[in-house]
Amino acid sequence: MPNFTFLHHPVHSILIAAGIGCAWLTPPHFLSAQENAKDDPGAYEDLLAIVDSEKTLKHLDEMAKMGRNTQKEFESTAAKILDDYRGWIEQNPDAILGRIFLGKLLVKLDMKEEAHQQFLAANKIDPHVAVVNQQLGNHAAETGNYSEALFYLRKACFLDPDAATYHYQLGELIFTYKNPLVLNRDISISEAEELMMESFRKATELAPDVRDFALRQAEAYFDLLNPDWNEALEKWDHLLESTDNLFERDVIRLRKAQVLAKLKRYLEAREIADSVTHESLQDSKQSILSELP
Predict the structure, then answer these.
(1) Where are the alpha helices (H) located in the chain, listed in sequence order?
(2) Which site in 13, 72, 160, 289 is 20 to 30 Å from 40, CA atoms measured?
(3) Using CA atoms, how far apart are residues 153 and 166, in angstroms rounded to an integer?
(4) Distance separating alpha carbons of residues 86 and 80, to the nearest angstrom
């Protein structure tokens, strides 16, 4: 029996992990596949029962985080749920929704190759489901097929333009793999920078409450060849005004000081850098101050 375990990711590893989410949730980008599944109400209800059973895995995972030894129960429960999904798919081979849910659970259990096969099969049934294209893009990025990843993630954004995570992932893909994408002539440097910034902008606009998106959009100006530093300053000012977290405010102040230095506003840059008091940021503060004339 495989050694099942849920994957836990830091917030900023969204390129691969975000959008996978919890397989017991049904986000909006499943709607077209969901409507197709409802053509057979009995099968659809059976599938929902399997999806609902994943709550047990979530509970066992939470208990494990609290120090309880739930590994054996988790493994047996996961194996049964996987068998239930596979049985359902065998009876409904052309129903895409079952493959999506199974694929997403397999990703969570780090069984990525089997998950990939499910998403490939789903894509053959219907190549116009956003979440399937997103998952294929994620896998392509993980396995070094950056051209393919770009194709699938752009398609996912086109199919579901209101999914903020897809735009965020596309921006991160371009940032991380810009060089091979440009060398492969998938995109020019100027097109890459424009698409990256547009992707982060859309993610931020679509999910204004997800602060990590706004922070990444502001950070992206440092990734451009010829950024508009006045525009960048506006972003960092807004971020500073919109948080009461003392540590985050100090981090933003340091970034703002760097932007002010780019604008040759050195006195303002020194003043705001000097205002940073958090102990863990003092080395960064001194580094920025040492670069000011």
Answers:
(1) 14-17, 31-37, 41-65, 71-91, 96-108, 112-125, 130-142, 146-159, 164-183, 189-206, 211-219, 229-241, 246-262, 266-274, 282-291
(2) 160
(3) 7
(4) 10
Contact call for residues 83 and 73 (beta carbons, < 8 A): no
Q: What is the mean pLDDT of the chain?
A: 87
What is the span of the domain harbouring residue 23? 1-126
Higher-confidence residue of 136 and 24: namely: 136
Euclidean distance between CA atoms 274 and 270, whole angstroms? 6
CA dist 276 → 28, 218, 257 (Å) = 42, 19, 10
Assess contact for 130 and 159: CB atoms under 8 A.
Answer: yes
Q: Smallest Cα–Cα separation from 255: which of 225, 207, 208, 223? A: 223
Alpha-carbon distance 293 to 267, whole Å?
9
**Radius of gyration for the alpha carbons in the chain, expressed in angstroms and rounded:** 22
- pLDDT value at position 159? 96
State the pLDDT at residue 102. Answer: 96
Q: What is the per-residue pLDDT for 70?
A: 85
Whether residue 162 contacts residue 36, with contact meaning beta carbons closer than 8 Å, is answered with no
Question: Do 180 and 198 lie in a common domain?
Answer: yes
Q: Are residues 160 and 181 in the same domain?
A: yes
Q: Which two tokens stand for residue 111?
A: 């069984």
Our count of domains for the chain comes to: 3
Q: Quick one: pLDDT band at residue 39, thresholds 50, 70, 90? A: low
Query: Can you spell out the DSSP letters for 239-258?
Result: HHHT---HHHHHHHHHHHHH
pLDDT tens digits along 44-95: 889 999 999 999 888 888 888 888 888 888 889 999 999 999 999 999 999 9
Interior angle at CA 67, CA 65 and CA 68, nearest 5: 100
Structural domain contains residue 199: yes
Tell whether 217 is covered by a domain: no
The CATH number given to whatever domain includes residue 183 is 1.25.40.10
In a domain, 139, yes or no: yes
What is the rounded CA–CA span in Å between residue 53 and residue 85?
A: 11
